[in-house]
Task: structure prediction
Amino acid sequence: MTVLTIATLTLREASRRRVLRSLAVLTVLLLTLSAWGFSRIDAEFGGLTSGEAKVAGSTVLNLVMFGYSLIAALGTAFLAGPSLAGEVESGIALAMMTRPIRRWTVLLGKWLGLVAFGSGFVAVAGVAQFLIVYLTVGYWPPHPVTGLLLLAGQTAALLTLGLLFATAISPMASGIVAVGLFGATWIAGVVGSVGEALGNPSVAQIGVVSRMLLPTDGLWRGAMNAFQDPALLAQIGTGVEESPFLSMAPLTPAYLTWAAIWTLLVLGLAALGFQRRDL
Amino acid sequence: MEAVTDSPAVWASHLRKRYRKRVAVDGVSFTVARGEVLGLLGPNGAGKTSVIKMMLGLVRPDAGEVMLLGRPNTDPRSRERVGYLPELFRYQPWLTADEVLALHVRLAGVTVSDRERRDGLGLVGLADRASDRVGGFSKGMQQRLGLAVALVARPELVVLDEPTSALDPLGRADVRDLLLSLKQRRVAVLLNSHLIGEVERVCDRVLILDRGRVAASGTLAELLGRRSLRLRLTSVNDEARSVLGSFEREDDLYTVDMPDDVPALVADLVEHGVRVHAVEPARATLEERLLDILRTHPEEHR
Ligand SMILES: Nc1ncnc2c1ncn2[C@@H]1O[C@H](COP(=O)(O)OP(=O)(O)O)[C@@H](O)[C@H]1O
Ligand SMILES: [Mg+2]
Result:
């Protein structure tokens, strides 16, 4: 009951703060840009029939989707900070937390609201993007729903981390640290795939370890895999593995389970931190 | 399990809190009876806000226990009938005043009609701002909203931490009326205020904190107990002075401890040739008493 009240409140906050407008502007910008880009690809290759064109199309689609996941991650991470740490800092939490409620229900409510917000954004922007790609080059990704779910999972993982930081440090810092770590694991993932391509196991290990520590990059790779043409690999064989915007393998159930456990663990830590905090 | 209704509104025992090396609260115990108005006084940094926050479960005490309305304050239900206006009063700037109240009603788990909510806003002078965003409110308006929030869920205990710090004189008068009406409805109140005149007017009992400890506590009568007599006299000679006994003098104003027989004292003075212009009973004001207590309580525990 309290959880739902707080979740609705968080959604209302997201919709009334400037975050939503900035998100909308960025998204429309990216959609327009990609529409232009895909029409160029179409003009250049005359549709997505050749292998080259498919690589180009899939890469560009994944690149654009990466843009959305970045927007979603940034948006929710910077919502999570102010939403929790900001309320503690400003004093909004004082009157609220003296109501007959437990602190973890407030945290859970905020988390649910933010996850709903992030997922909603990913769904709307993603479907709009798929339509644009379909209309310009006639390509429809093989597993759109799985891919969007994985992107939503990536957003959830990052904002959970943002919430954990928000229980300990200032609102702005929590957003910056979360997004910084997100970027770092992405780079580590790219480094790792370069290591794989070069057959250097110790460099490849970097990507594997970072994907365990913060599953955003792993989930992102799973999402890419769901968006790209499955015939791609067969047609072009190996040699493109080092591209950060193509992914060779779908996610294993074990990794998905780990990502879910990781998120719950971080959420639990955040609840513990918030419980112990002096307001 | 129903809470016992004859339990005190607040029972706090040996509260202690240190922030890093600084001891903010050092063994504070007190009770607030049902329907009682307790004034919490003390200089800045005495630990008043810390005591209030520990009481309401916002800050974890290092030691001590609190019962609110018959339940331990570790149980969220102990706060079902508690209203709180923090010293640092801020409300969701993206909500309207009425939405803030509605949110608190929902979190409190009570049902309060729209009309009642609007009446609550009217009571603090915000009736015509109900549908304005809180972000556009002045500090004083936010404090008024905070009062409405504290009162919205039909509280049996209201905790006000410097409720008039941002208010105009009119607002302060409103708060005084509000306090009197709470008192009439037998709502217990814990009031931390620097407006000692207000405290003296509405409080049944006073708790004075100094450097984290209870420096004094008691009913107003107990604290201000030493009643005295003030006389305006001229032509006072040595014999008359001995009649007065020990006194304090300020020009022709003499203050003595209240004698058993005032007319006899006056007759005695007249007999010694003293001209008596005025005689009135006097009582130390709470302010004088407070300063007295805080000053005779010097560096002993630093
Ligand atoms: N969050 C905090 N961190 C560090 N010190 C604090 C904190 N809150 C209060 N204090 C210290 O505790 C003491 C009591 O503060 P407070 O309870 O706010 O006093 P009052 O409300 O009586 O003015 C002060 O010395 C203050 O510096
Ligand atoms: Mg204070």
